[in-house]
From TrEMBL:
It comes from Lactuca virosa. InterPro entries: SAM-dependent_MTases_sf. SUPFAM superfamilies: S-adenosyl-L-methionine-dependent methyltransferases. Keywords: Membrane, Transmembrane, Transmembrane helix. This is S-adenosyl-L-methionine-dependent methyltransferase. The chain crosses the membrane at residues 25-43. The keyword GTP-binding does not apply. The keyword Transmembrane applies. The lineage of its organism: Eukaryota, Viridiplantae, Streptophyta, Embryophyta, Tracheophyta.
Amino acid sequence: MMTDFPAAIIAATRKKISAFLRRDFIKPAAYFILLLLTYYLGYLSAVSKNPLCEPHRHYSTTTTTSTNTTNMINPPSQAAAVDHYQFQTRCGDPIPSQLIRQSILNRVFNGTSPYHAFPQPHIKPLLRQQRIKGWGSTGAVFKNLIHKVRPKTIIELGTFLGASAIHMAELTRQLGLDTQILCIDDFRGWPGLPTQFRDIKMVNGDTMLMYQFMQNVVQFNATEAIIFMPFSTGSALETLCEWGVTGDLIEVDAGHDFHSAWSDINRAYKLLRPGGVIFGHDYFTVADNRGVRRAVNMFARVNGLRVKADGQHWVLGSF
């Protein structure tokens, strides 16, 4: 058997060593050669008995042919030897920024604005005239990046009640920019939402979060600037990639655990136009390297980027 082959050679080598000793052939050079031979044969034996040990295999953290790879300290087991860095590798041809809004309306809302005739009579009594709530939604990073990039299209992952989207709409309006903001959120919140936000009503198990977001957008007269996709970030980003929708400025602020943030950043980065900027919130939290920060730092390391902190926000770039 193959696993017995190195052991047999080692045994034969030991006999040769004994023969050398009996015949007084041992000299310093012979000692050295025999020592090396024994060590190498022992190494081969270990490799042959452990089929998962592949000493010349490199585990790439990228899906491209780039030489920028990171070797994993502990290679995955054979059962788990899959590429966790594989995301959709090819997007559709980019469409012009001025066509993005209509493309979303056609593909998601059957060509009609979701704000049309909003709110419906059965929804209106459940909404507050204005209910704005966010975390870090008016930080200096928004103004800094909008002034720098002057984006035609902004993509936001994680919208909640629209505080940061409305703030960005106001900032672009002040600069005289015709910017389209695309908000991606499933508008389901989290299991503790009904307890924490009792004023956001629930009907048949469905929160009124999306409708309250829409009400806020209407209240701030931002319906032409803000459009949305009420789906999970993963499915929406993959679909936008296929459709060729790209952004000059992308904010990642949806799931805050490592796996959600890692997935969102990887998928969102594919939609970033040349010269654009991707950024997000919650870089400094109690989760530390178990959450967003770990995902951001890993992505930066893999792609040769640097991380710049701006308050609680992170910004990725070459700087």
